[in-house]
Amino acid sequence: VGLKQNYSHSVNGSLMKWQKLDSVLYYSNNILTSGYKLNFNNNANERLFLLGIDKINQTVSGVENFYTMTYHMKEKAPEYISSKIDHFGYYDGTTWYSPDAGNYTNYTLLEQNIYPSREPNVDSCYLGMMTALKFPTGGRAEFYYELHDYSGVLSDNKQSIISESGVMSGLRIKEVKYFDPTDALPKSSKRYFYKK
Questions:
Q1: Which of 74, 6, 86 is nearest to 46 (CA)?
Q2: Average pLDDT over residues 123-149
């Protein structure tokens, strides 16, 4: 039994190059027995998204739709290397504060403007997140997310934890709902809790 992976790459206008896995093929005695083809949006002007996985039977033309992915407003996902980021480098859709020439030593001005300009943006962080996965059986899973949160911060002198709460960067799975092919209501769901 042999395994072959096929890669391809593309270059967009900014000369950034990405590589992706196009397929995984299984061979027995140099004869293709099965495999999986990964389908991407392949648009050099958009972020790369995996749209589906096809199962390959005997020949590359013998393909059956296997998994299909859906994303939240993927066309609005940020460009690569965006400067519109929050404190932890996640996209927030906001150009962060940059002081005028000569104001780099005005620390009060910097603190008043930079910190708020780097706060997480709830609306922007969902862009491009997977919202649904359709299974080969026709059923699907829907994904719901929430921002991370915190309940304490380190003191300025780094000697104690101060009780303070809020939201912070990055998303985590909040709930997954599972649907049968013809049902409008979920058959089951799984809720995730991240607190004591």
A1: 74
A2: 93
List the helix and strand counts (H, then E) for the chain: 2, 9
Residues 6+ apart with CB under 8 A from 160: 154
For residue 125, the SS3 value is helix
Kindly report the average pLDDT of the chain as a whole number.
83
| Contact assessment for residue 18 and residue 8, using Cβ atoms and an 8 Å cutoff | no
- What is the reported pTM? 0.77
Encode pLDDT of 47-71 as tens digits.
889 999 998 877 556 667 789 999 9
Q: Give the single-character DSSP code of 97.
A: P
Burial 7-38 (b: 16+ CB within 10 A, else e): eeeeebeeeeeeeeebbbbeeeeeebeebbbb
44 and 16 Cβ atoms separated by less than 8 Å: no
